[in-house]
Give the backbone structure.
Amino acid sequence: MKHLNNMKTCLSTILMFLSLLVNAQVKPITPGQPAPEFNLKNVDNKMVSFNDYPTAKGFIIVFTCNTCPYAQGYEQRIIKLNEKFQPLGYPVIAINPNDPKLSPGDSFEKMQERAKSKKYPFPYLFDQGQTATDLYGATKTPHIFLAQRTGKGITIEYTGGIDSDPEGTDLQKTNYLEEAVGALLSGKKPASTVTKAIGCTVRRGR
């Protein structure tokens, strides 16, 4: 039994190392690029895409998960962001980017449990095969992609972190995402379009 546990630990370490190598090669899409389309299963078993929001001005797309301490720390802030900006035309769409084979706590069933217990007011989507995760180039949880709908389609306007305070203790933090959405609502471009996403590395299965 001890030998089996050692083998499992060794395999887990190898998979984690490979995941880190893959993430090191991934580059997030940049502001100005079209927002990749997706059609993913929500925790209510319904499929969700941009087409389900015909009146939205844009979208706050956040790659997040159940298990990462940073994602957990930002959870209530993400809920409040949706409460503030969804009525203004910028709803939150959350996507879990982790491979559940590497992170069992991020399985679809666990996602359903967490969304229910935390009363998520936004969709929480399961990215089967990590297709959307790769299209967006998400590398962290949480990782933000702010998109705006224009006459030419849906375009990425900001990527990176939610704010400058991952620990949730800085009263003088800079609210990167709120400032970016505020600029778009005023008909302007965000002053800062790219910041560093701080969080756990996405658990990629290849």
Summary: The chain is about 35% helix and 20% strand. Strands lie at 40-42, 47-48, 58-63, 92-96, 124-126, 140-141, 143-150, 153-160, 200-201. Confidence is low (pLDDT under 50) at residues 3-21.
